[in-house]
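Escalated from tier 1: zinc ion holo job.
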Amino acid sequence: MCENGGVEQAESRQAACGICPRACRLAEGETGFCRARKAVGGRVVPMAYGRPCAVALDPMEKKPLYHFLPGRPVLSLGMAGCNLRCRNCQNAEISQASPDGIPFESLAPEEVVALARREGAPAVAYTYTEPLVAFEYVLDCAKAARAAGLANVLVSAGYVNPGPLAQLVPFLDAANIDLKTMRDAGYRENCAATLAPVLGTLRALARSAVHLEVTNLVIPGFNDAEEDFAAWCAFVAGELGEETPVHFSRFFPCHRLRDRPPTPPAALEKAKETALARGLKHVYCGNTGSEETTFCPACGAALLVRRAFEILVNRVRGGCCPDCGRNIHGRF
Ligand code: SF4
Ligand SMILES: [Zn+2]
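Tier 2 regenerated the structure:
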């Protein structure tokens, strides 16, 4: 496996991968840092093409997307491998595996579309791990889904190069991107990645027609200080827009991060207060088990009420508040 440090082997490495900032250069047969791409015939190809290891029908709220087709099911695909090494990964058994090392289903892009239709899902999501390491498969599925009138949803850490992202964006309808911290050192320590490419992805999506929501997993002692919330909210409100729905999600110990407690509810409330004070209009706390309500930013009416992944109330009409007529950001 290439860990980006093998200078002495550089001359034998012929195939370059342009998907993410790691820029792996691989010898024939070698696998990239993500464990999901391999040099074959001088090209770096996705090993999980047509081979998702997780296939499920999820509620849209589980992605989480709260302002996009609420209450509708989404056919969700996960492919083995990831280009990050998050110590807190909740899906490590598939994200830190190679597509050759775990069971999978055979699903060509047209079969993905047929399955979504059979299940009555209006959308396909690329999720659970880092889907962009299976870029060519995601792109072909997204094209097939778009041609069939289905929506495409990307759930990603956003650690991708601008070129592949620009190729995919025209076929995407919605995205939830994880912005883990505004500290580059935090990305390096906890994820073996860097911050700048993630910010670039977020800015590109915010400029596009893709509906964007952003998630922050609040981890005690990592990103729960007041200045962490302030910097995070300032970036989202200032650069992505105050209408961007944001999700502060509760951490539970897992994978390699078991030495700290679950996020106290008070920390999530603090994050929410900070976001509202910074002007963000749609602020949610996730993984808490309590109800989450979308309020009209103009008149304060309760428009959408959710518990877990279930919609209890949906009063949005024609994308607007029925009481005052204000547009509600998203697709309803
Ligand atoms: S996607 Fe995988 S193979 Fe390609 S540069 Fe990133 S880590 Fe390396
Ligand atoms: Zn209103």
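Residues 54-288 form a domain with the TIM Barrel fold (CATH 3.20.20.70).
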